Hints:
This is GAF domain-containing protein. The protein is of the alpha+beta class. The chain has helices spanning about 10-15, 25-35, 65, 75-85, 140-155, and strands at about 40-45, 50-55, 70, 85-90, 110-120, 120-130. The protein has one domain: 2-Layer Sandwich (Beta-Lactamase). Helices cover about 30% and strands about 25% of the residues. A hairpin with a 2-residue loop joins strand 5 and strand 6. The radius of gyration is 14 Å and the shape is globular.
Amino acid sequence: MTQHNTSPNTIISPLLSANPINWQEILSKIIAHFNCTTGTIHFLDDNSSLLMLKSHQGIPPFLLPKLSEIPIGKGMAGIAAERREPVEMCNLQTDESGVARPAAKETKVEGSIVAPMMWNNTLFGTLGVAKPVPYDFTSEEISSLLAFGEEISAYVKE
Length: 158
């Protein structure tokens, strides 16, 4: 059963008040909320302007070096950050747009989406989830993912 009508803040707010914050637990809750198997949280490093991997689930270990630092404008996360809007693929395996990097196909995921994490029009990073099957995320799911990103950004802005 999906939980899409559950407000993001009721799912992760209690976890965001922990010290230290368990980013893995937060990501796992978000992934479960969307019935996904894979996900990433990247935070924008102001000094380098790179998206730095903070947490991941379901990513093969050999791909982690390619995901640890992502330039703005590269791959799904980099493009979501650059455009400041979600980037979605129904099937990453068959995509030929060039948005997904070649190594991304090695994750074996298909339906995937990455949303920018924004607060007051400021980019703080990206939040991505994916399923092992082709999938088009609904407008409600996209809004929910953006809300999770906003909730996270509100906590990390300090």
